[in-house]
Amino acid sequence: MSKYRFSQSSIYIDGTSVPKNKFNIQSPELIVEVEKLHLDDAYKELSNAINSKSILNETYFINLHKKTFESLYDFAGVYRDVNMSKGSSQFCLAQYLHSESARIFKELEADNYLANIKNDKAIFAKKLAYYQGELIALHPFYEINGRITRLYSDMLALFNGYKPIDYSSSIDNGVYIEASIECVQYADTSLLEEIVFKGLKKNEIK
User: pLDDT (tens digit, 9 = 90+) per residue, 148-173?
Assistant: First the structure.
C-alpha cells in the first residue's frame, strides 16, 4: 500500500501505510484482504438490489463508501476536509470538493444516468469514462477512492443493462493507474475510455 499525502493530518497508523481502523489491524497485507472482503460483500448486495428505479445520485455514491466500510473505518462515507495528493497528482482542493461533487452528480442526473445512450456502447463507454474520470480527480474520501469509484461505475453499468466492467487486465499491467493519472493531471479520459469500452459486456439476463 502507498500512502496519500494530506495537507494537515494523517489517517494512517504511525509508521505504517495502514489507515487507523476499528480492529487495530496494522498489517498492510491483512488490511487489504479485509477491505477486499468488505467490497466483495458490497458487490453482491448492491448487484442484487440494482433495478430500473434505483437513483444513482450523490447520496447513493456516498452511501457506497459508508455502508461498505463503516464497520472498519470511522471515515467511511465522510468527504475529506483537507487537501490530498499522491505522487505528482493533486486531487480536487478541499475547499471546492463539495461544490464539484454536486456539479458532477447534477450533470449525471441531467444525462439521465446514461440511460438515454445505453444502446450505443461506444458513446456509453465514452460518457461513463468521463464521469469516472471526474470522480477519480475528485477523490473525495480519505481512502479507498478508486475502488469505490469503480464500484459506482459498475452500478451504472448494471443499471443500464451491462455487466460489471472487467478491469482485470488493465489493473494487472498498470494501465488503469496510468489512465487515472491522465484523468487527474491532464483531464484526459481517452485511455480510460478504451479500458471501459474493452471491459463492457451486455448483460443478457437483464
Answer: 999 999 999 999 999 999 999 898 89
Long-range residue pairs from 59-65, CB within 8 A, at least 24 positions apart, any chain: 60/152, 60/155, 61/105, 61/135, 61/148, 61/152, 64/148, 64/151, 64/152, 64/155, 65/141, 65/144, 65/148
- The number of residues in the chain equals 206
pLDDT at residue 7 in the model: 77
The arithmetic mean of pLDDT across residues 61-65, rounded, is: 98
Largest Cα span, the chain: 50
* Residue 206 is assigned to a structural domain of this protein: no
Residue 145 domain-assigned (yes or no): yes
For 141, the domain range is 5-199
From residue 120, give the alpha-carbon distance in Å to each of 117, 170, 197: 6, 23, 11
Q: What values do phi and psi take at 88, rounded to 5?
A: -100, 10
